[in-house]
Write a structure and sequence with these properties.
Blueprint (H helix, E strand, L loop, with lengths): L1 E5 L2 E15 L2 E10 L19 E7 L5 H14 L5 H4 L1 H10 L9 E6 L5 E5 L2 E6 L2 H12 L7 H4 L13
Antiparallel strand pairs: 1-2, 2-3, 3-4, 4-5, 5-6, 6-7
Helix pairs in contact: 1-4
Length: 171
């Protein structure tokens, strides 16, 4: 389970799966996806960008990455799966988010994106809230990195348990 609090509401999110980002033969990070699971329907990569249930993406770095490299890779990834107007609509949020990346990541550091039912997207680095927005286009851009048509990792693994709860993290 992964939990966060926003405006006095506690969100408990169940682990739905994990994957790895490998560049050449180097493991860059592990990623885990979490969501509020309901009896209504399981998540799929076709619906994860439109489903309004709270969800989270946890990135655990496996190696040191400088902040400029993180910004560069995120910028490329945001553009890779962007729908026609998302980048233009989210420009102010993208710029503010990139500016909020103010330190390097070391092996073991965690970056967590929370996308809540009210549309709020929050970002935490090692448990410290570093960015927040209600920009829907920006939230879709972030999730499209891992769930778009050309994802940064094996998106199937991220939702393998979306119909059943599991307490695991990115083990």
């Amino acid at each position: 389970m992964l939990s966060t609090t926003s405006d006095g509401t506690v969100y408990e999110l169940a682990y739905t799966g994990k994957a790895e980002r490998i560049f050449l033969f180097f493991k860059v990070y592990e990623i885990a996806h979490y969501a509020a699971l309901t009896d209504d329907s399981a998540l799929s990569f076709e619906t994860v960008l439109t489903d309004k249930r709270p969800k989270a993406i946890l990135v655990r770095f496996d190696r040191k990455l400088g902040r400029d490299r993180i910004r560069e890779e995120l910028d490329k990834s945001l553009r890779k799966n962007a729908q026609e107007n998302w980048l233009e609509d989210a420009k102010a949020s993208v710029d503010a988010f990139m500016a909020a990346i103010d330190r390097d990541a070391n092996a073991g550091d965690e970056l967590v994106f929370y996308w809540l039912a009210d549309g709020k997207l929050m970002v935490e680095f090692n448990g410290e809230r570093s960015f927040e927005t209600t920009d829907l286009a920006f939230a879709k851009l972030i999730w499209s990195i891992w769930f778009g048509d050309d994802p940064a990792c094996d998106r199937d693994g991220l939702l393998v348990l979306s119909g059943a709860e599991n307490d695991s993290k990115t083990d």
